[in-house]
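Hello again, I could really use a second opinion on something today. I've dropped the whole record in just underneath, so have a look.
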Amino acid sequence: MFKNTFNSTLPNQEGYFGEYGGAFIPPQLEVIMKEITAAYLEAREDESFLDELMSLYQHYVGRPSPIFHAKNLSKKYGADIYLKREDLNHTGAHKINHTLGEALLAKRMGKKKLIAETGAGQHGVALATAAALVGLECDIYMGEVDIAKEHPNVVRMEILGAKVIPVSHGRKTLKEAVDTAFGAYLEDPVTQFFAIGSVVGPHPFPMMVRDFQSIVGNEAIVQFADMKDGALPENIVACVGGGSNAIGIFTAFLEKEDVTLYGVEPSGRDINTIGEHAATMTKGEPGIIHGFKSYMLKDENGEPAPVYSVASGLDYPGVGPQHSYLKDAHRVIYEHISDVEAIDAFFELSRLEGIIPAIESAHAVSFALKLAKEKPGSSILINLSGRGDKDIDFVAEHYGKKYKVNF
């Protein structure tokens, strides 16, 4: 099996990636966050903790996830397109990689309950799964819009024993779910563990989630070389909301200068209108959101702007601080894909390769198909972060007529 490694020099001790990151939190949380940081740094050096996590990755999650050569897409679009199949993980996405780590850490610290936000529901399902496995209570905060849109995942969470708490203010989507979950955490940070669902939030969460997700890239760098006689992919593409799946696959390749990395954001219905997209890197600027500094989309008052995406897991007005650092360092190129383009790619992958992707992942697929036309003959590795079971009712209802799906 593959051995995960935690060897990055960033963030620094204060949790900064360059100027981004940190911990902008109420005084009552400062001691708690220092305790979590100390517990995590100790755990990641503990062979028994790592051995348990790696055993779960192999025997419970089903890692390593395979890399698949998408020959039909490759033939049509002119480049060698490969998929890192995180959609085949237990629970159907990359999210299980970090929720298992967070749950084991919470158990190690003597916490009683895991709480979290979720958008598309993939993080919520993964956390509910991990909570059931380790024997902890679990509360999941989810916007009412996303509850209606991603109903199959709501049912999964409740079957697993989690309590799904509807969020009914604002746009009733991911940003509001984060706000509400953070408020609930402030009420009892001692017995609860806020298992943040991406590489966002105050230190140490961007580092911790990054480390747990880095297994994706650690596997991919070995797998691809095995498939291609030692070669590396020339291009890697991943969707970006908060940015956990992208950092997961990018980390192992950051020092490989011949590999071009692309993060793909949602431009939604209209990238030039506030509230109609969630393209943080394209239209945002540095600011402080949910306890950390990063690029963020701002309204006229400098507060987090309303956002939108057809993909519930991408509609967040901020982004992980390491992504902000990588943008400024010009190590990762951040692009954007519209709703229409993402849904086209959703059906293209489904009908050419027999793989139904999450709408989030379809943003990466869409950009990769454009890239294939621009770089014929090149190799492109897409991190297929999740499967589309959760999206099929929504897609059939809203796009079925166009794509000849009876509903």
